[in-house]
Amino acid sequence: MRNSEYPMLKGITYLDHGGTTLTPRSLLNSFCHEMQAVLLANPHSDASNPSASAIMVEETRHQVLRMLNADPAYFDIVFTANATAAIKLVTEGFSGSEDGFDYYYHRNSHTSLVGVRELAARSHCLASNEEAEDWLAGRASNVLGEPVSRRSILFAYPAQSNMNGERLPLSWPGMLRDSPRHPNAYSLLDAAALVSTSPLDLSNYVLAPDFVAMSFYKIFGFPDLGALVIRKAAGHVFDHRKYFGGGTTDMVTCIGDAWVARKHSSLHARLEDGTTAIRSILALKCAIVTHRELFGGLGKVSEHTSWLAKRLYTRLISLKHYNGAPVCHLYNHPDSTYGDPTTQGATVAFNVCGSDGTWVGPWKVGTMLRARKIYLRTGTLCNPGGIACALGVDAELLRRAFNEGFRCNTEADMIEGMPIGIIRVTLGAMSTMEDVDVLINALYQNVTEHNDALKPSANDYNNKVDSVMTSN
Fold first, then answer.
1. What is the pLDDT of residue 224?
2. Hey, CA dihedral for 61, 67, 70, 72, is it positive or negative?
3. The Aminotransferase class V domain covers which part of the protein (predicted)?
4. 453 lies in which domain range?
5. Which of 213, 168, 221 is nearest to 345 (CA)?
6. At 147, which helix (H) or strand (E)?
């Protein structure tokens, strides 16, 4: 199946599915067929008589809700450019309020979640899972060090860390909603990393997040499209949003008394500014069907990638220099267990050490691997809080590193002998054990220091098990 569906992988080992996964040939064929068979008119051209494109958009919207087990009576889907655009849309709703909002975010937050703090009246980074749970339970409600505010509160966190794959509790939004200490608080879940290889179940609307951001290219490879899933009970947050775009209003005046009447038929009608991305949404419709046909659904993908990640993790920790010193230092959370998809995703984060314990810069390792057509991710991974905690560096050192010329994923990625970045492997639905073997052998042959008299064969690291999934 991999040879026929992913010809771009010939001679290449691709291990950056967390950046974007790859597009199968059958999805492109399906999309091209649909593009030639369906007339895609602008859905705004005749709203009283919906076109084929308008019907297709609504069908796809319901397909996404079904994929998430989300009842359309309680949830709506707003299509966006990507997960970051979905997060920005939520921020526009909260920042439009006269009183502003307070913002709490987990240390594992992607940069796109961290950036929300710039529009908040007050913000605080929850530096550990324990601090987050204490705050959610009301045991540390005044962590901002000021009197409790009457402003709305937005609490944001990733379902899965994009840095090391740690999966955080999906029970947190329910805890927040049940807490009497946080009566005007809302939850924003960044699900982009999680849903790339795992299902998300929103069937219990009482305990579900108020807002979920996601990107479809991380699941399917194509199209470049995202979505914001909104719990309708929280939809009033967007009453404060200032901006409006084409297609989201019933009436606008410009001369004299300037006013606007926004659409209220649905949240997506009010929030999808401009012409709907009809071609991308058609591609999404094709992608959902194709992905299910190829892989049997995200549940099967989760089983497969969890199995592979556990084996990769085990192989990396078994790599030793001639003197027994470890080759790799891994950055998994102590509460996460490889092979357990409730606590750990298909991501392995590590750095490389010499036999004397000195660090090898991640940029240098990444360059060596790319020369061997092995593609993964190095740098700070758009996860500033997670990286700082994993490496044990503080804001002062990072500022000094910046002033001395450090920039993410460049050759100057060491300060005082310590890396300011990591190496990240993310597996996908079409990853195989052979991909793991290629990476391990490259590290063994090019990084591991050997005593020639005791040097084993590189073949000792081969274990040609292909997959726990049935391939076509």
1. 98
2. positive
3. 13-439
4. 298-461
5. 168
6. none
Same domain, 181 and 84: yes
| 347 beta partners | 426
C-alpha dihedral sign at 85, 289, 27, 5: positive
CB 192 within 8 A of CB 213: yes
Residue 30 domain-assigned (yes or no): no
32 catalytic residue (yes or no): no
Low-confidence residues of the chain: pLDDT under 50: 453-472
* CA angle centred on 23, ends 19 and 26, rounded to 5°: 165
Claim to verify: residue 441 and residue 348 sit in the same structural domain:
yes
Residues 254 and 336 in one domain: no
CB 33 within 8 A of CB 227: no
User: Within 10 Å of residue 143's Cβ, how many Cβ atoms?
Assistant: 14
**Dihedral angle at the C-alpha atoms of 363, 223, 31, 291, nearest 10 degrees?**
80
Both 263 and 336 in one domain: the answer is no
- What CATH number should be reported for the domain holding residue 324? 3.90.1150.10
- At residue 404, the pLDDT reads 85
* Strand arrangement, sheet containing 101-106: 75-80, 226-231, 211-215, 185-190, 152-158, 101-106, 122-126
Of 263, 291, 319, the residue at which a domain comes to its end is 291
156 shares a domain with 83 = yes
Strands (E), 31-133: 75-80, 101-106, 122-126
Q: Which residues contact 16 (CB under 8 A, 6 or more apart)?
A: 375, 376, 377, 424, 425, 426
C-alpha span between 229 and 83 (Å, rounded): 10
What is the number of other CB atoms lying within 10 angstroms of the CB of residue 306?
A: 23
Question: How many domains would you assign to the chain?
Answer: 2
Contact 157, 186 (CB under 8 A): no
Helix axes 298-318, 433-446, angle to 10 degrees: 20
Task: Tell me whether residue 215 is in a domain.
Answer: yes
130 and 250 in a single domain? The answer is yes
Contact 346, 305 (CB under 8 A): yes
Tokens 């579900």: give the residue: 208
Tell how far CA 193 is from the center of its chain: 3
* pLDDT at position 412: 86
How does pLDDT run across 455-466, given as a tens digit for each residue?
Answer: 444 444 444 444
Domain shared by 305 and 287, yes or no? no
Pick the catalytic residue: 286, 353, 382, 389? Answer: 382
